Amino acid sequence: MYPKKIIIAGGGTAGWMSASLLQHSWPDAHIILIESENIDTIGVGEGSTPSLKQFFKKLNIADHEWMPNCNATYKSGITFPNWSETPGYESYFHPFFSPLDIQTGEIFFKRAKAQKRGESSNAHPDFYFVNTQISQKCKAPISPSYPNLDIDYGYHFDAGLLTSFLKKRCLGLGLINVIDDITKVEIETNGDIKGLVTNAHGVQKADLYIDCTGFRGVLIQQSLNSE
Fold first, then answer.
1. In the annotation, is 116 catalytic?
2. How does DSSP assign 105-156, residue by residue?
3. Helix (DSSP H) and strand (DSSP E) numbers for the chain
4. For the segment 90-101, what is each residue's pLDDT rounded down to a tens digit?
5. DSSP letter assigned to residue 191
6. Range 209-222 average pLDDT
7. Catalytic annotation, pick one of 75, 110, 113, 116
8. Of 48, 140, 159, 201, which cross-links 52 as Cys (Cβ 3.0–4.6 Å)?
């Protein structure tokens, strides 16, 4: 069983990613996304973890379909400059772990534990992980020559462009986009949400409500008083 009607409050990256996943999981559900043209999104570039790779994999969207539309590049990990005052460990590259790292990763963790016990051991992470070497050589974590190479990665991308890409895709799959302001959230006597009052489209009701209104937390915080 699944909710027959779903309302997502708020657009942006969170709203349209939620819409994409819900459409994929419950293609027969009636999904409405309500967003206001009077509220700006934060509008920043984003850097992701490999979780975003799994997001696109679940939706069967290949990298070449969305990355050019969103000014995206691959991300192999995160650099931490001036991380420590310990000589030799001032900076390090935090890699995204892949199956290729299992053997060298085990060696790293053994040496890190030995160093923690006070033993002399080379435990700098920069020497043990594939993505670190890829990044240092300015290479991408994919290769046409090795299509089955299993390396995890994230992305850098324009969040606004990704929102536009997902929105276009969701609308093409039948999602209803309501451009309006939510003026009030009606609450049942038992504390559940009864409906969302909009400025021009009246009361919108659903079996499931998703709050993607960001820091304002219109449903979760302002109406349900949850932290």
1. no
2. HHHHHHHHHHHHTT------GGGT-HHHHHHHTT--S--TT-TT-----EEE
3. 6, 12
4. 999 999 998 999
5. S
6. 92
7. 75
8. 48
